[in-house]
Amino acid sequence: MNAIDIRNLSKTYRTRKWGRVDALQDLTLSVGKGEVFGFLGPNGAGKSTTIKTLMGLISPSAGTAQMAGVPVGDARCRMKVGYLPENPAFYDFLTAREYLRFVAAMFGMSPQETQAATGKVLGLLELEGAADRPIRGFSKGMVQRLGLAQAMLHDPEIYVLDEPMSGLDPLGRALVKNIIRDLKQQGKTVFFSTHITADVEVVCDRVGVIVKGKLQTVNAVHELLAAGVVGYQVQVTGLSDFSGEGVEVTVRGGGILELQVPRELLSLTLEKLGSRGAEITLIEPNRQDLESFFLEVVAQGKK
Ligand SMILES: Nc1ncnc2c1ncn2[C@@H]1O[C@H](COP(=O)(O)OP(=O)(O)OP(=O)(O)O)[C@@H](O)[C@H]1O
């Protein structure tokens, strides 16, 4: 059984002012148990609409979705899922600890479970120092971290996170990425939306790109990265010079020659270097990052 199963989901918003907005069109997508899935798309692509539908906060115009085998919108489904909304807003007269106690009560946790889980998530999200301060005095990044803390509190199987890295400084982003990696190690499923490819590159198993409400592609991140190898940087010692068609050569200090070798010329160049007695000290791929892939897919999707 998949952790998340979305079948032919569509959502049309109807407003007096704007008329009809087809925010989501025939989305079909599955996320396996234990998988980290990045849902990547530009602003207005339909990411939050998908996530709100998964959380039962809006009803689809057509199609169905299940999480952990339970139809979305069913309370049993909500029990199995940790949800971080796009712009978390809490009862800000409460302290962080009081708010987490309230969330724990909603999930029917015992006082012992609540105390242990609250301490744990406050520690993980580095909020212990602020735990007894009212949320109204929290910075944007602290509110975002509290949002993730409340999503983790009941130790769910599945996480649905709407832009979990948004509003965080580099330290906060690193913290959240580490938490997502840890969740994966524990066998949890994470589905998160983002428009930042670097976030996908380091934590996701697969990525789906959505543009204008339509899913464009779904790919394994490691395959995209492997396909994105455009050439290699090769460093050698023991040669004062080297020339080869298509190969750029730079002389570095310490008797090192650095070669930029196109992907298709690597074997031939290594053979030539070997036959001239060079010692190869480094071979590193030059990758096209996910950003270029994303921009290409978005450009195609907007046509
Ligand atoms: N309540 C609503 N009423 C009318 N249109 C809406 C509503 N909510 C979203 N939309 C429209 O639906 C489309 C998809 O919006 P959605 O918020 O799902 O995109 P998103 O990918 O999450 O964008 P972002 O990255 O900017 O958060 C947009 O055109 C948006 O303007």
TrEMBL record:
Keywords: ATP-binding, Nucleotide-binding, Transport
InterPro entries: AAA+_ATPase, ABC_transporter-like_ATP-bd, ABC_Transporter_VariousFunc, P-loop_NTPase
GO molecular-function terms, A-Z: ATP binding; ATP hydrolysis activity
Domain of life: Bacteria
Residue ranges annotated for the ABC transporter domain, each copy included: 4-237
Keyword Translocase annotated: no
Name of protein: ABC transporter ATP-binding protein
Organism lineage string: Bacteria, Pseudomonadati, Thermodesulfobacteriota, Desulfuromonadia, Geobacterales
Gene: xapD
